[in-house]
């Protein structure tokens, strides 16, 4: 629905571009409502402005704390013009529609940043502004809300063309408005948390689930927040037994469960310090566990186990006396639970199922003074996506092992190298500055575990920058390679693979994990 813009309410702390924008609105015979400093700036520019107090027929009071919190403001913003009951009520009570709202909020964040006093910070918590922004954004079917001077130009362009804005624009501006009020409230929340030296019950969209004994190290405080709409996983899991979860337990358990969810077959992942030390699929999880453990039984001590199947007594018996911190599974049989009760300190977490495949999710990473936000790496490379670039094509078993190894590499810290055979890991090289070193470590770990690298598939999370990785792989008896490709030296790398009659496939997909 498109409504002609006849009335605008302007109330801004950041007055960048507001006079020019208001002059344009006035030239289109749009009535201007305003308050305080914004009204003065517009009048000083020679514009006719109607004070909100005149519009509401109610004076500003309490040192300006109450001026826009009035039915004639919020009724004008929230009234649905295509609903007769709304129109009748607005007419009865003398409420006129407000079609455009231009607001940016009191500078709370800037006030805190400059080290203002507690009282000054409280005074710069905007109440009426967020209320009007949210009212206008909710009713974006009819109302245009602008919270950022950067959007004046687009709104002006559309009004110039049709005396209105498009629904698509109003929807985008409404989303931006809600994002702004969310960030504003979050800043206030974090300021109070700092003042009170306590974790707030809500942090952004997160709800406080647990205050932890400490963070990554004993001198760091920490807490665990979860999203109300979280998929099945660490945040939804119920703890059946064991000690309280630590920060590192939660981080590592999440890494383990995210890995096993990749596989349709029964799978086991053993994680240590957020890196896999053994991963396998099998005809059942007992077989998968034995194969995974064989990859690195030393590192598995004190590790985390995740499975994508119901934990059964047979697998618990296979685990035996191995010391573990956590086991996470969709469910566990009564017999498995009974056996694990003997391990009093072991945490058993049950998620209630596996997360739905293909659902987008996001992650953020804190950096100094901000955070990075990205979609989780949900890409699954399929057989059809693989491009055979060597003279020899992989055998059927090599194709299976290559895809398995590349899937595991996605969950290994970069630079990542994974050796695999019969869909179980043989050696893993993680987190090295040089990919050559990751290859060496993967081969060394296999040797330490007394696992043969001959006939293995080798996966790299990113392209091979030089052919030295191929030569080292050949020395270890590795017969097939998978990597994204895309290096300026791809031809040299392929030539080296052909020299040793290796099968090489490229995915066109990179799986960095830092």
The number of domains: 3
Low confidence ranges:
none
Number of helices: 19
Mean pLDDT: 90
Q: How many angstroms does the end-to-end distance come to?
A: 47 Å
Reported for the largest beta sheet, the result is:
6 strands, mixed
What's the count of strands? 22
- Percentage of residues in DSSP E strands: 15-25%
CATH architecture verdict of the largest domain: 3-Layer(aba) Sandwich
Classified in CATH, the superfamily of the largest domain is: Methylglyoxal synthase-like domain
Helix content: 25-40%
Rg to the nearest angstrom?
A: 30 Å
Oligomeric form: single chain
Structural class: alpha/beta
Major sheet strand order: 9-14-13-12-10-11
CATH class of the largest domain: Alpha Beta
Q: Which word captures the global form? A: elongated
Q: What is the third-level CATH name, the topology of the largest domain?
A: Rossmann fold
